[in-house]
Write a structure and sequence with these properties.
The protein is α/β, with parallel strands linked by helices. It has a nine-stranded mixed beta sheet with strand order 1-8-6-7-5-2-3-4-9, sandwiched between helices. β2, α1 and β3 form a beta-alpha-beta unit. It is elongated. The chain starts with a strand and ends in a 6-residue tail after the last helix.
Length: 362
């Protein structure tokens, strides 16, 4: 994977004909405080890119409401009805950031798709460099955080420690990359073929194997509101990534069993030597309880790790839909009717393709 330098390429590659259509997918959960500013900045970004000839004027922004409990969805409805560039997608209930992002990807028909969080800490001004990398031949462009000065010290240390640990466990991740990325149409369509229920998109995108590049940027302060990834959710996402892409914890159980078995043999040898060589042995509970408690705690830990993997298998074999779509508002004069969906996405693609003539990549 190469690091892309915008200075080394022309604005439009000769290998690609015409300006591509761009979709910006924005998962939203209780983002009422930032939504107006986010919409305004993303629209300004589209207009700048259109004026520069990098994208087609038919490009769109897909906002996905992940079961918000504030005024996020009413605001998105108004935006979609007043701005044809906005598509508002509502999930029937909260399904988590990864499922909301996946649902948004499933609704797009454009040639290029960029995913970005609603707080815009991963600045939209970097989309231009991502498009240059795409036009230079990359199917996937990862936004990599060069500096995290906007984060707290605790957030920065835990995030970097997370990437370090994941790499040590054998999970193929791009260091300091979250979900700010560009994907070509064929990369998105390939990703949508993955059937698993437990989504960890940062690892799944790496599995695609298409040509990739990185664009480094400095993270911005959050516009307003609070982070939707507190410590609890960060740990949950980290554990999901480990169990979805690594069997290292299961191998660690084998190693732990060998170590505790060796320690038990040492203790047995010590007990027998004391029994045979000592004339007066005072029996005590410590020599019994310590090994019992130690081995018991190790067994419970091992059962817990195995149970996590069994739980993931249980969720996968049920083949339940990842989400249901409650409503899609396309920004046309006649908003999309209320529909229900799931693993087979509620589809607005055909209507958009008819409007544009073709939604296929060049």
């Amino acid at each position: 994977m190469k690091q892309f330098d915008p200075a080394l390429t022309s604005p439009l590659s000769a290998e690609r004909s015409g300006a591509p259509t761009l979709a910006i997918v924005v998962p939203c959960y209780n983002e009422e405080a930032v939504l107006a500013a986010t919409h305004a900045e993303l629209v300004a970004t589209l207009e700048t890119l259109v004026h520069a000839g990098k994208i087609d004027p038919g490009s769109r922004i897909y906002f996905v409401d992940d079961g918000s409990r504030d005024g996020t969805w009413p605001m998105l409805q108004v935006m979609a009805n007043e701005d044809r560039r906005v598509v508002a997608v509502a999930l029937s209930r909260n399904r988590g950031h990864q499922n909301a992002l996946y649902a948004g990807l499933g609704q797009t028909v454009e040639d290029v798709v960029v995913s970005i969080d609603a707080d815009l800490q991963d600045g939209p001004e970097n989309i231009a460099a991502m498009l240059d990398a795409y036009l230079d031949g990359s199917d996937i462009v990862y936004g990599v955080r060069k500096e995290r000065d906007a984060d707290t010290v605790f957030k920065r240390l835990t995030a970097e420690g997370y990437y370090w640990l994941m790499q040590r466990l054998g999970v193929d991740l791009v260091f300091n990359h979250a979900d700010f990325r560009l994907m070509s149409r064929r990369a998105v369509d390939t990703l949508l073929q993955y059937p698993e229920t437990n989504l960890f998109l940062r690892g799944m995108v790496r599995e695609l194997g298409f040509s990739a590049a990185t664009v480094e940027y400095s993270r911005r302060p959050r516009l307003a509101g609070e982070s939707k990834y507190p410590l609890r959710r960060m740990l949950s996402l980290a554990w999901k990534g480990v169990t979805a892409f690594s069997i290292a914890p299961l191998r660690a159980i084998t190693v732990m069993g060998l170590l505790t078995g060796g320690l038990s043999l040492v203790l047995i040898a010590w007990v027998l030597s004391v029994k045979l060589l000592s004339d007066s042995v005072v029996p005590g509970w410590a020599s019994i309880m310590v090994p019992v408690l130690f081995i018991g705690s190790v067994q419970l830990l091992c059962l817990g790790v195995i149970g996590e993997y069994l739980g993931k298998i249980y969720e996968e074999v049920k083949r339940r839909p990842r989400y249901h779509l409650r409503e899609v508002v396309t920004g046309s004069a006649e908003p999309a009717a209320e529909r229900a969906g799931g693993s087979e996405d509620v589809d607005i693609r055909q209507a958009v393709r008819e409007e544009r003539g073709s939604g296929s990549a060049p």
